[in-house]
Amino acid sequence: MLDLQELDARADLLRHQRSHLPELAEIAELRATRTDLDNRARDAQIVVDDLTEEQSKIDVDVEQGRARRTRDQERVDQGLITNPKDLQRMLSELESLQRRITTLEDQELEVMEQIETAQRELDALTTQVAAADERLAVLTGSRDDKTGTFERELDTVSAEREPIAAGLPGDLLALYEKLRELKGGVGAAPLRARQCGGCQLSIDPSELAQIKAAGSDEVIRCEECQRILVRTADSGL
Length: 237
Known about the structure:
Elements: H1 2-19, H2 22-77, H3 84-166, H4 170-182, E1 188-192, E2 195-196, H5 205-213, E3 220-221, E4 228-231
Helix pairs in contact: 1-3, 2-3
């Protein structure tokens, strides 16, 4: 029984260690960070795309304005407009067109600066996402390696446990399993130096006398914690 308890305690410890690997907490935190970075990178990409589209529209307007200015200026320079009023109107339109082109060019420069700033932010976020992915790959590999080691150790413990459990009476094994569930994983404890190894309380003389008088095949329970007490050479009986 104590051999079974020792193996079960070892298995519990292995499962606890497997579920509390330091990599697991860092992976969870890093995944949350990466999700945030990814969202921010997506938003930054939208900003870059919108600004790029805006710049393209301004570029088209600037090119159209320049083409019209060139065409109208050539008409003036070639003397194709002879009517003084029409000529004056054309010159006025050329001045307005130049002001419009200058305004568009200023807007174009401003948008280009905004694109440069937005692109720097996007590049920085992309770099951080890549670094997070790289770190996640390392952590995941380490987690998998350690988990594999624990799984193999648990398989070994399970293989050692099976024949021991099979050699116990079914009702005793069922009681042990129930107590393990109720008592924090410890269903059986040794009686050493007149003390229960489960609750660590001393057994009173009257109870010790009953234990001493009990048959070797009789199941003994601690009156305090109700765990199965296993008599040993050091029980003090």
